[in-house]
Amino acid sequence: MRRTPRFLAALLVSTALLSAPALAQGPAPAADPVVARVDGTEIRLSELQSEMERLPAELRSMPQPMLMPLLLDQLITQKAITAAARAQGLANDPEVQARLRRAEEEALQQALITRAVAPQMTEEALRARYQRDVAGQPAEEEVRARHILVPTEAEARTALAEARRPNADFAEVARRRSTGPGSREGGDLGFFKRGDMIPEFATAAFAMQPGQISEAPVRTQFGWHVIKVEARRAVPPPPFEEAQEALRQRAFEEAVNAEVERIRGAAQVERFAMDGSPLPAPAAPSLLDGAAPPAAPQPRR
Q1: How far apart are CA 49 and CA 71, in angstroms?
Q2: Spatial distance between the Cα atoms of 222 and 22, rounded to a whole number of angstroms
Q3: Contact 187/214 with Cβ under 8 angstroms?
């Protein structure tokens, strides 16, 4: 299946998450007063509110009596610059017109994708996905382990022998010998799932019970590990509230990709060479395509 080009996917992901208020129409004219004029061009309250909806959440949380004047000053500056550019005839500049066409195309793309994916982003749709993908899954096992990481097998075997001595403190050995992250904490890695670690490490750790130390050093791309499992536990699926954001992101990406694939599949596309000339027709399949060469004749006896 053809994948969505990265640049298009990034464009759609970054823009189609705009909240509904940003796409909603402004208030009725009677409730939409003019808050400024710049060279005769009006700025209405609805435009100011629309700009506010596009701000990052941390800026939108500012008190409106403080935020609105700042936004209005910004809009006034923008309108003044736009008016000056029009006065100089820049609206007819070919490069400017090309940018305007591109901006129009992007706005249309964003509007189409936003409308297409909206039904799959409702709380009802996300709860259905939660029941299908999360709630019904069995509890996932986690392991808490410590490790000693050293660059050579010889050093790992020395550390392993020391850690296996009667009454040895694995954490203390890790603090002295380990070169890996977390050595100051005695090599403590906390709890982790099987998929959180590289396969060689995870296979060894999840094969052990609490209190066990690996029988032999474990080699990974980072070096040689001596592993001690501290605890194991089964973690039930998270509640909907915790999983909601991840579900929303996954649903959004799947819906965008599906819609883009549908649109591309329905489009009539012609491709040409980089100089605009027709591309050569693909070669017709041959009856010999995929055929194996004949076996070498056997020598006569």
Answers
A1: 9
A2: 48
A3: no
292/80 Cα distance (integer angstroms): 74
Alpha carbon distances (Å) from 81 to 28, 69, 74, 77, 156: 28, 18, 11, 6, 67
pLDDT, one tens digit per residue, over 266-293 is 999 888 889 899 988 777 666 555 555 5
Strand order in the sheet with 188-193: 188-193, 140-150, 223-235, 218-220
Largest separation between any pair of C-alpha atoms in the chain: 106
Dump pLDDT digits (tens) for 217-250. 999 999 999 999 999 999 999 999 999 999 999 9
The contacts of residue 110 (CB under 8 Å, 6+ apart) are 11, 12, 15, 16, 18
CA distance 218 to 147: 10
